[in-house]
Design brief:
The protein has nine helices and twelve strands. It has 315 residues and is an alpha+beta fold. The chain has two domains: 194 residues, Urease metallochaperone UreE, N-terminal domain (HSP40/DNAj peptide-binding domain); 71 residues, Urease metallochaperone UreE, N-terminal domain (HSP40/DNAj peptide-binding domain, Sandwich). The strands form four sheets. The chain has a four-stranded mixed beta sheet with strand order 1-2-6-5. A four-stranded mixed beta sheet has the order 7-8-12-11. A two-stranded antiparallel sheet has the order 3-4. Strand 9 and strand 10 form a beta hairpin. The longest helix has 15 residues. It starts with 5 loop residues before the first helix and ends with a helix.
């Protein structure tokens, strides 16, 4: 995906004020409006300018976009990091109906859809450690609400909230905090705050629906001969039996040791073969003895598959 430099599109500096952004948009919108422009790429440029303006005129979108920095070098592929917009508090419904680039949709499409409840509702995304979901309980988050100061410069207002984390909550699910959005119009009730949860990377586990996935290194002889090894799980270490004849990629299931639910998810243990390094003469001699005792060609199947592919191409 191509990174879009919205400041470059608008021809303004990154510290531009609200007035400068509006002025640049009016000028470019007149220049590229398809009904009056004679530029060859007027329609595409008009849409590009409109998209840039939608982001930069919004203090919330602009603050989150600024966090990405100036993007990769030209020609490099871009993927936003999972925590790029965490901790920002967005307000009001998104702008529906407009056509946007893949870049915009990757950044703001989900937020715009999530925010289309009512104007005084707010929403935010927070990064949560996996243990918070496994255990449940209270967590404190600091949210930033970007806004414009009297001179039209972007500033941030912060607030801290204590949030009760439901046990077993999954990435993409939301927690609703009633009355924590914007004040209601007139005597109307305040809006709600919807907090979307995303998990920070964990050193051991990955989450797939309600299952946890863990890679477990085993020695070659443990995989070949079978063994019982101590394996970490969210509930504490357990003794796991490795079947004889296991190989890299063999998956063992520990039922009910995944994400809390009714019924709970499973812990899926994926075996990895860890090779001991030939760090000394004794270790190297052991490897040579193994090679002599067990003639084995790990690439034997490649010749067969290559011949089959050659025959398929010949047809």
């Amino acid at each position: 995906m191509e990174f879009k430099d919205y400041y470059q599109v608008m021809g303004i500096p990154r510290d531009a004020t609200e007035a400068q952004i509006k002025q640049a948009y009016r000028k470019l919108a007149r220049k590229y409006h398809p009904d009056v422009s004679k530029e060859k790429d007027a329609e595409a440029r008009f849409k590009e300018v409109g998209e840039a303006y939608e982001v930069l005129r919004s203090p919330e979108k602009r603050a989150a976009y600024d966090r990405l920095g100036q993007g990769p070098r030209p020609g490099e592929d871009f993927r936003p990091p999972p925590d790029w917009d965490s901790g920002f508090e967005f307000s009001g419904p998104g702008m529906g109906g407009a056509e946007h680039s893949d870049f915009f949709e990757a950044l703001f499409g989900r937020a715009a859809r999530a925010s289309s409840r009512q104007f005084n509702d707010h929403h935010a995304k927070v990064m949560l450690d996996l243990e918070a979901s496994l255990q449940g309980g209270s967590r404190t988050f600091t949210l930033r609400m970007p806004e414009l100061d009297a001179q039209g410069h972007l500033v941030s207002r912060e607030r801290s909230l204590s949030v009760q984390i439901p046990k077993g909550i999954l990435p993409g699910q939301t927690i609703r905090l009633a009355g924590q959005g914007a004040a209601g119009a007139g005597k109307g009730p305040p809006g709600d705050l919807y907090i979307e949860v995303e998990f920070a990377p964990h050193p051991l586990y990955r989450v797939e629906e309600r299952d946890l996935i863990m890679n477990l290194p085993v020695a070659p002889w443990e995989a070949a001969l079978g063994a019982t090894v101590t394996t970490p799980t969210p509930g504490g270490p357990v003794e796991l039996k490795i079947p004889a004849g296991s190989h890299a990629g063999t998956t063992l299931r520990l039922k009910g040791r995944g994400m809390p639910a009714n019924p709970p998810g499973n812990l899926m243990v994926v075996l990895e073969i860890a090779l001991p390094p030939p760090a000394n003469d004794k270790a190297r001699a052991a490897y040579r003895a193994m090679a002599a005792a067990m003639p084995f060609d790990p690439r034997a199947g490649l010749a067969v598959r290559s011949a089959e592919q050659t025959e398929d191409f010949a047809r």
